[in-house]
Amino acid sequence: MSSSAKIPHYSCHLHGKPAESADGARIEVVNPSTGLVFATVPACTAVQAAEALEGAKRAQPAWQALPAIERANYLLRIAEGIKTKREHFARLLVLEQGKPLAEAFGEVDDTIRYITYSAEAARRITGEILPADQPNEQLFIYRVPHGVTVGLCAFNYPLALIGRKIGPALVTGNTMVLKPHDLTPVTACEFARVIEAAGLPAGVLNVITGRAAEVGGPLVQSELTRLITVTGSIRAGQAIYAAAAKNMVVLSLELGGKAPFIVLEDADIDRAVEAAVVARYANCGQVCICNEGVLVHEKVAAEFTDKLLHRVKQIKVGDPMKDIGMGPSTSKIGLERVFDILAKTVAEGATLACGGQRPDGAEFAGGNWMQPTVLTNVKPSMTAMREEIFGPVLPITTIGSYEEALSIANAREDGLSAYLWTRDHRRIMHAIQNLETGTIFVNKGICGYIQGYHNGHKRSGLAGEDGTHGIEAYLQKRTVYMSWE
């Protein structure tokens, strides 16, 4: 980090050392709480993106040749380096992403867990020995790395997504070029200082900052890239899918969704209300598995809605560094889109039950602020129930049956996650078999365990992350038929 005109500048990381843009250009990073520039990072070029891939290709054979446990030791040093700078990273997350400080500390801790879990997998990378059909022969199936991988991160979890991607990629013998989101590149640049201190061999992990059009395209389209892991929107995933098709690149796409929060007539209403609020307004609603719309049974709709509104009105909005309830949205453009969805839905006949405005007060004059908002009398055809909101607006729709809720949920072209609140085990088992989503939370609020698996169905993605299946995604199989005659 350097300082010019009192605005700190953060370098990226290429070929084992800090790097700047080849032409000196920089990207301004805005604090979403104030709307003011608080840092700059290099605006790297397409040529530098190609050089980062070349460096990763050169480093990969030697990295793969290391015993997996030695690769894991580097990861453990990286995890320890993050731990020693825990508060520093948490405060950077608040500054560039806007989540409250407590949530930022949680993200730092999750990053450490992701990397540590991957390191622990070093002794669990297995192959297979199968019987051959002929005498004096042996059949093996090895698992080997893909080679050069590219990691593209979303803005909602700038640090945790790094740990989620680099851990399994590196422990399995791949190298990676990591590109953070344009809105939130600072924590990635500071993460680069940790990998430098850990002594990671040059080229094994390059961190490149720059505009998506300038840097992302060359990374995705290069013949050197063998696997791309993306966390982002469905639209971004579709564009990457098309761009990478020519080279038949392996894709791991964790894309958007619109999780229905289904509350049936026999649900524990108090628990469901609390879970619905946390799953909507955590990180200002900017979580891919957030509660994107309540489908509540008509017999309990009034009770549920009254209790939910009471709880939402208790959420305080304010300076996230002071750890007040809910902070700002990260993106100005994203928040404008949320307000647009809100306006369209009200125009379509929905009722604005609470919120819907920028908070009052001088501290909210700049930045990307919105009150926690609830819409009632929302029909499934209305905008807020059709489009992914990714912000602090919760639409509530009344349903007449479980079957109606299932029909509404499965009619969507995406399928990342869903919530189901009921005591009826027959409905639970039916939903497990028939809800077309990658994750189902049954009588459970929003969460994610590293030993689980995070993936989407339909347009919500390909492959997935976390757990043994997530690590497996970074390995390809090699079959060997051997005769020893």
- Mean pLDDT level: 97
Q: Can you give the helix content as a percent range?
A: 25-40%
Low-confidence stretches: none
Q: What amount of the residues lies in strands?
A: 15-25%
As laid out across the biggest beta sheet, the strand order is 16-17-18-15-14-20-21
Q: Considering the protein shown, what is the CATH homologous superfamily of the largest domain?
A: Aldehyde Dehydrogenase, Chain A, domain 1
What form results from the Cα inertia axes? globular
> What's the CATH architecture name of the largest domain?
3-Layer(aba) Sandwich
Backbone CA Rg = 23 Å
- Top CATH class of the largest domain: Alpha Beta
CATH topology annotation of the largest domain: Aldehyde Dehydrogenase, Chain A, domain 1
Total DSSP helices: 15
Number of strands: 24
Give the assembly state of these chains: single chain
Largest sheet: 7 strands, mixed
N-end to C-end Cα span = 62 Å
**How many distinct domains?**
2
Counting helices, strands and paired strands, the structural category is: alpha/beta
